[in-house]
Amino acid sequence: MKLLSVASEIYPLIKTGGLADVAGALPGALAGQGVQVRTLVPGYPAVIARLGKAKAVRRYDALFGAGASVLAATVDGLDLLVLDAPDFFAREGGPYGDHGGNDWNDNWRRFAALSRAGADIAADGVKGWRPDIVHVHDWQAAMTAAYMRFGPAAQVPKVVTIHNLAFQGRYSAGIFPDLGLPPEAWGVDGVEYYGGTGYLKAGLVSADAITTVSPTYAQEIRSAVHGMGLDGLINGRVDRLHGILNGVDTDIWNPATDGLIAKPYSARALGGRAANRRALERRFGLDHDGAPICIIVSRLTWQKGMDMMIDAAEHLVAMGGKLAVLGSGDHPLEGALLGAADRHRGRIGVQIGYDEPLSHLMQAGGDAILIPSRFEPCGLTQLYALRYGCVPVVARVGGLADTVIDANEAAVGAGAATGIVFMPSDPLALHGAINRLIDLHGDKLAWQAMQRAGMRADFSWRHSAAKYADLYRALMAEAA
């Protein structure tokens, strides 16, 4: 089976979040299910720099007004198709905005171009290769499904995955004439969304299947609270909705072989974590003592519950714990956390930005990871934490609820507990979870049992890839 994946980022070439990890890991996992994946991604500078020998397999004289070509290359085992459109993607800054965090004002055109190229490949193929099915990710690629539906690739099965419903790609109605879609695409059953243009909405109404990245999130987005204005559409297509949990790349995230940490270790030999703990203390200027080290590796935003962490950090220190934070996001939250670090030197350390090697060390050296998200489609950091014996302390939402077993009395007694789960969006519940963390950490045997239970859990892509492959085959049979 030949599958075209369309995504706006892919690890290890370009990454801002979990979408890149999924886009990078899923092709290898699907290969074991008999699915050959080629991934179409934008030609950002970081991507073009990694291509090496690449062949142009499609050319555009004017793709949304710009010259462009599709390049074929293999990088780190990934079979890539890269949309090389310098006018759109050859920019300093991030994939979606400038260094100041401002979105590019032509993102609607940039990702319409990516989607148009995806639909063209679905219809015509490239150099003798044509996909049997197309799988697109989030709003940046969702218009691929709309272009296919209203074009010659209408019969090719198409899957749209929602990684985070909060990001929808909403623009004014004024861009519609420039999208190159037929007039009938404008309407409630097309790209029109509350009087404007909705990229994710257009993909969802055009898809043959809609997937989310955890079973619980698939149910949550059917409610007005988590549906972000799309709950009516999703409930109307519930027969097409599937919740398939994300996995992790167990080769990249493996404490026994990880070259980015201070010392490898395993569930049988947890003693190796001590060297990583010391390295983490040095890196963040934390006191060298036996107090539990909590880590945060996150976007610093309201969605992630980071506003609640300002007061919770004070509570953690008062209870005797320490905190190491890696992330970036809303400037007021960055400033508040930096202020807390300044007030509590040796107990709180903060690094603004993202550092992939450091994130590995934090998982290997931290005792617990704090994830107080208000909503979390899947979450990958808690899966990395489980694999590394860093106990997750999580809100009971989305994929966090699906992957962490709370350390209640029965679960602890049975040796099944893997973390601490608390009611979401409640600062007092977060304080209570920190209290439980401190108490459990004081019981060395119970704590190590939780670490080992988490490390034994299987969150590889094996099961999820099989579910995707089954879905693809069902869609192809339906279309036949």
Automatic annotation (TrEMBL):
Listed GO CC annotations: cytosol
Keyword ATP-binding applies: no
InterPro entries on file: Glyco_trans_1 (IPR001296), GS/SS (IPR011835), Starch_synth_cat_dom (IPR013534)
Keywords carried by this UniProt record: Glycogen biosynthesis, Glycosyltransferase, Transferase
Record keyword Lipid biosynthesis present: no
GO MF entry, a single one: alpha-1,4-glucan glucosyltransferase (ADP-glucose donor) activity
Single GO biological process annotation from the record: glycogen biosynthetic process
Residue intervals of the Glycosyl transferase family domain: 288-441
Catalytic reactions of this protein: [(1->4)-alpha-D-glucosyl](n) + ADP-alpha-D-glucose = [(1->4)-alpha-D-glucosyl](n+1) + ADP + H(+)
Domain of life: Bacteria
Pathway of action: Glycan biosynthesis; glycogen biosynthesis
Coiled-coil ranges from the UniProt annotation: none
Chain residues that bind ADP-alpha-D-glucose: 15
Residue intervals of the Starch synthase catalytic domain: 2-235
Pfam name, any one: Glyco_transf_5
HAMAP family in UniProt: Glycogen_synth
Function summary: Synthesizes alpha-1,4-glucan chains using ADP-glucose.
Protein name, as recorded: Glycogen synthase
